[in-house]
Amino acid sequence: MLRHVCGRESYRSLSGRLRYPPSLSYHFHSSAIRRSSPPPRYVRFSPPSNPNSNSGGGRRNGKSFLEDHTWPVKVGAGLAGMGVIYYVSCLEQVPETGRWRFIAVSPETEAEIGKMVLQETLAQYKGQILPQDHPVTMHVKRIVHNVLSASHLGTVKGYIEPHKQSLFGNDFGADDVWSASSSTNSPPSAIASANKEWAVVVVDDRKFANAAATPGTIIVFTGILPVCKDEQGLAAVLSHEISHVVARHTAERLSSQTIATALGLFLSIFGVSLGFSATLNTLLLELPNSRLQESEADLIGLRLMSKACYDPRASPAMFARLAQLESQASRGGFGAPEFLRTHPTSESRVRDLQAHLGEGYDIIAANPACAELQDQAQAFKETTRLRNAFDLGHNGHDHHRQHGEDEKEVWR
Fold first, then answer.
1. Range 68-73 contact pairs with CB under 8 angstroms and sequence separation of 24 or more
2. From 204, 273, 337, 397, which residue has the greatest number of CB atoms within 10 Å?
3. Where is the region Disordered (predicted)?
4. Which conformational region is residue 261 in: left (phi greater than 0), alpha (psi within -120 to 50 degrees), or beta?
5. Residue 388, exposed/middle/buried by CB under 10 A (0-12, 13-18, 19+)?
6. What share of the chain is helix, strand, coil (3-state, %, to 5)?
7. pLDDT tens by residue, 273-332
8. What SS3 state is found at 219?
9. What contacts 219, CB < 8 A, 6 or more positions away?
10. What are the DSSP E strand ranges found in 46-163?
């Protein structure tokens, strides 16, 4: 039996069959059933520490914040988040159109900019500025007064409204014919208000057809007068420039420059050059916003001149003449495409204004002062004719014709 066991079965099977008494189990050990421990492994790196621990002086995975190659992305994302919050907090609507825009410049700062522009204009065009009592300056002042007072936007510095009186000494009306209900969405008082005083500057430069306005200042170059053609056309131009101030387009442009600078710096983190960023800003932000503001000023200006009882058709007619002037200046060639312009083409402005003429006439129809003004204007002309007829030593017809020629001289 022992031979059978040793010859035919393995030692491990045999040891498994052996049974020892309990008294000998603590003293007898068989090396056949002992298993050796696994050999030690070579560990190149130490095992990772507990991620919940805060050892290492604020480092994570043994790296500082700057040693992490993703830190520019994290910083950029944080700055972008703060920029979005700041941008949203500075959004406001244009009261006259409801357009949302970014404004980060206070009305007081904008008013100070207007004062600086006035001083620079007086210094730059010294010797070319017409006196305040010049007929052309007084004519421009009167139209500015009409537009401002009709919408309660301010008064003209140094201007006293003429006291209209009939041939028999009766006033045309004690009520202010320019009064109109004040808008609930009026601009800030530092920009335009009933007590805001505006300075009117007329520069005698017949080669420069332009006009401009800043808070408290209106600048007109005599070169724009032939384009305006008459008082109605000049009212359209002045209303357009005043609209830029009412809509706070200057503050909007200054604020957009802040956004452009911030975007340029943000893109520079990702390797985009500042020159390329400036080009993108010009094509995608600056020029489109400039054209949008010009179109917005056209619409607001149409409303302002209609409130002042000027014919709204004068606005598209003026831009039609401006289109002819631009065509002559380019000598029949093709100008720059509209997406590269700061202003819309005159043709597109004419189309847009003609589409809103109904709104202008609705304003006139709803304003009793306009009908009263038309009647008074006709009566004033009749009174002037009668005065000329009774003027001794002058022929009424010749005097009236001479008076008309003097008026035309202003627009030459």
1. 72/269, 72/270
2. 204
3. 32-64, 391-412
4. alpha
5. middle
6. 55, 5, 40
7. 888 888 888 898 899 999 999 999 999 999 999 999 999 999 999 999 998 888 777 775
8. strand
9. 121, 201, 202, 203, 211, 212, 213
10. 91-93, 100-102, 155-156
Hey, what amino acid is at 339?
F
For the segment 202-224, what is each residue's pLDDT rounded down to a tens digit?
999 999 999 999 999 999 999 99
- Strands (DSSP E) along 103-250, which ranges? 155-156, 197-203, 211-214, 217-221
Q: Which amino acid is at 313?
A: R
pTM: 0.69
Q: Are strands 197-203 and 217-221 parallel, antiparallel or unpaired?
A: parallel
245, 260 contact by CB (below 8 A)? no
Distance CA 278, CA 241 (A): 28
Q: What is the distance between the alpha carbons of residues 342 and 293, in angstroms, rounded to a whole number?
A: 10
Q: Which helix (H) or strand (E) holds 76?
A: helix 71-89
CA atoms of 267 and 239, how far apart (whole Å)? 40
Its sign, for the CA torsion 61, 65, 68, 73, is: positive
